[in-house]
Amino acid sequence: MTPPFQSLPQRITTTRLILERFKRSDALDLFDAAFASTDEMYPFMPWCHPEYSLEDAHEAIQTALSNWALEDAWAFTIRVKTTGEFIGGCGLNTIDEHRNANLGYWIKSTEVGRGYASEATRALVAYGLHHLQLVRIEIMISTLNSASMKVAEKSGATYEGIARNRLFLHETAYDAHLFSFIPADFPDG
């Protein structure tokens, strides 16, 4: 049975966060957060490059909206519930015929270390498993990215090992740690 994607919730609320489908009006917030985080993110997320511009943010949001409409990927902003501050993004993409998906996340550098990424990850996994009816969600992390490894571990993902030459970043292949979630990890929704 195919999930009714048109009626999917566009907002996920956690204890401290609101994850919400990107809107065009998020462009300046996305630009500000990404630009402030370039030094930390660029080695692992080439889209967040030193020349990142407001136009790049507009294009990223248009892609996110198009992917949502095509039912190819689901991208969300991450905002602090009490203040509404934009602190990052997360999403599910690379969904295949086996109902597997990739999960990605990033948090603005000034907000790292507060548990926001793991909280958003758990909420997004539950969303993917229950609303998108995925059977497996993977997190692929460069073996050089220790901060992201901590997020995967803290979120409760199962470590499966190292995938050799799994990520291609800055014209170089890197090994990646592979973590996963399956429905049995979230039996109560």
TrEMBL record:
One cellular-component annotation, GO: cytoplasm
A GO molecular-function descriptor: protein N-terminal-serine acetyltransferase activity
Domain N-acetyltransferase: 28-185
Pfam family, one: Acetyltransf_3
Gene3D superfamilies xrefs: 3.40.630.30
Xref: SUPFAM superfamilies: Acyl-CoA N-acyltransferases (Nat)
Name the UniProt record assigns to this protein: GNAT family N-acetyltransferase
